[in-house]
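Posting for a labmate who doesn't have an account.
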Amino acid sequence: MTNRDTETGRVHSRVGELAMPGTALGEALSREELFEALSNARRRCALYYLQQQDGPVQLGEIVDYVAAWQYDQPVSQLDSQDRMCVYSALHQAHLPKLDDAGFIDYDSEQGLIDTNDRAEYARLYLEYDPGNDIPWSWLYLGLAGIGGLLASLHAVGVYPFGGVSATLLLGMMLAFFGLASLGHVAHEWRNRRAAAELFEIER
């Protein structure tokens, strides 16, 4: 068993965002079903690969990709036994599970698989790293609180805020929010890169 085999299905509280009330996915799946659909490493790898494609792909392509990822080998070095093991698991269990969850459309007779709009909800799960999480809502709330406090101190003339122009205070707060937003964008980009590095393989 390789190190990649130990990458298990972590269950995070944030995954609840994937089943937000009012969305088609939220109405179709319970939270437990959602966890179950995305809890397996092979299913996550297959779904990641499918999300990188522009259209339907053949089952054999996914088998090669997932097998290369699982056994940490280039596709050219995979043997038939490795492929058959992954093929059986994907064909009989994992792809039907993703199909039932509504993330993909799996035509088992034709051996064609494609993602649909619901697969976008899975990105939060694939890209979320709890060890690298930042409570952005609390950060923005804190910045808003600081802005309100500065405005109050300026309004009552507390030194030195009373002598600072309102335009300067506003500019400072906009700068703070702008820096926080840039940090948020960079953080999400790093999470996307981390997911790509986790599932990328050698060709």
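Reply:
Got it, the structure tokens are right above this. The first strand starts at residue 57 and ends at 58.
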